[in-house]
Amino acid sequence: MLEEAKTILHGHVLTLMVTGSGGFNISKTLDVPFIQEVMACSQAIKILIPKTDAAIELGGEDAKVTYFGDSLEQRMNGTCAGGTGAFIDQMASLLQTDVQGLNTHPAKLKSPLR
Question: Which contacts of 21-28 are long-range, i.e. CB under 8 A and separated by 24 or more positions?
Fold first, then answer.
């Protein structure tokens, strides 16, 4: 996979880091820096879609919501809740809407997400 990426990315400058629950050991083996996944996602959002107000990330082990604005606020559930109705209800509550609002609010955006 890395050899294929090398062919595609040849001549381009990039920064490579490893993240995720199993990433620390992989980063040591590859001698590549490790970055905590919430920090990696937040930095990517700030660069790629800087007008983002909030981001919800569903992982295999947990779920996170990050609020961007004057001050960064991040919340994370304590146990695995990805894919459950309880998690969806929790995210709606954090965003001060209901479950239907999670579906309708994005439709009101003035510019498309990338």
Answer: 21/60, 21/61
- Cα dist. 60→20, 28, 53, 91 in Å? 10, 22, 24, 16
| CB contact at 8 A, 62 and 82 | yes
**Placement of tokens 């083996």 in the chain:** 29
106 or 102, which is more confident: 102
Give the gyration radius of the chain's Cα atoms: 17
Residue 66 neighbours by CB distance under 10 Å = 20
Calculate mean pLDDT across residues 68-90: 71
What's the CA gap between 54 and 69, in Å, rounded?
9
